[in-house]
Amino acid sequence: MRVFNFSAGPAMLPLEVLERVRDELIDWRSSGASVMEISHRSKAFIGVAQQAEADLRELLGVPPSFKVLFLQGGATGQFSAVPMNLAVEGATVDYVNTGSWSKKALLEAQRYCTVNVAADGAASGYNDIPPVAGWKRSLNAAYLHYTPNETIGGVEFHFVPDVDEVPLVADMSSTLLSRPIDVTRFGVIYAGAQKNIGPSGITVVIVRDDLLGRARPGTPMVFDYKAMADEGSMLNTPPTFGWYVAGLVLQWLMERGGLKAMAETNRAKAQRLYAAIDQSGFYRNPVAKECRSWMNVPFTLARPELDKQFLAEAHQAGLTALEGHRSVGGMRASLYNAMPLAGVNALVEFMQEFERKNG
Ligand code: PMP
Fold this sequence. Notes:
Blueprint: E1 4-5, H1 15-24, H2 43-60, E2 66-71, H3 74-86, E3 92-97, H4 100-109, E4 114-120, E5 144-146, E6 149-150, E7 155-156, E8 168-171, E9 188-192, E10 203-208, H5 225-230, H6 240-255, H7 258-279, E11 283-284, E12 296-301, H8 307-316, E13 319-320, E14 331-334, H9 341-358
Parallel strand pairs: 1-13, 3-4, 3-5, 5-8, 8-9
Antiparallel strand pairs: 2-10, 6-7, 9-10, 11-12, 12-14
Bound molecules: 4'-deoxy-4'-aminopyridoxal-5'-phosphate.
């Protein structure tokens, strides 16, 4: 039986995609082999790869002046690839720290550059975004990095900060494809696939052409954006299976009306859950209302001693992976594209019933 899986990642994939993968697993397109067992340089696989890129470009409106790369190493690999590609040794880079993932990104960047923390959400306990007008940006930053959605804290930018001419770099791991974005506002966008795009093991990087070819000496080839772009992300063997599944997810998104339709559903899902939390005296989400994430909704119970019981009963009801990140505890419901509104409704009903019995 399929459950409503609220995992933050690797996360729920659309059932239709999994069924298609199952149906063509053993004998892909009458080739007598699975897609995992054919050369990445075969005509058939190149077709899959190119279609996925074309669909991603169409969904996000990626202009021709940007490259789309399908890499390995996860978003964490990009924590180092970004400074290696965009900043010469000794350069200053600006980072905005809104929580766990931006902190990890900036700690990694410190190994390569001088990091100026332009803004830090510590004063609000990382439950709010420091106002952009107060950001202390450096004069010659090679780029500004931020995390549009903090997967653990559930803090999300519902706007794109204006940083003038400085290349804006965004870790969109837990928000890419959840709504339309204006790609032209960014220098680099990157995302691990395992939330909204596909299985883990593939990393999408969208990079503006003028930022290519600047990698510092010593950058590993597989992390050099230009080297990878020149080879169509096939400088070495790419994660072919993940690329194929991502392609099916992209088709699934197109069939469902693209990112505008996703945004509407995602907004409705989040509103339903936040409304239920706010209306109860039993559940609580600490994040400032203007920056509550549509994708990851952390919440606590008024009586934390009931956490285990809550999780066990939720699991029984087919609502899984609701435990909060190990660093913060409590609960977290991740509501990526593949989570239907019915899943959120089921969660809300379960929560109300649990409160009625135990509150
Ligand atoms: N950034 C964000 C916002 C994330 O949510 C995650 C993973 N949860 C990462 C980076 C790290 O991604 P990966 O495990 O693909 O390296």
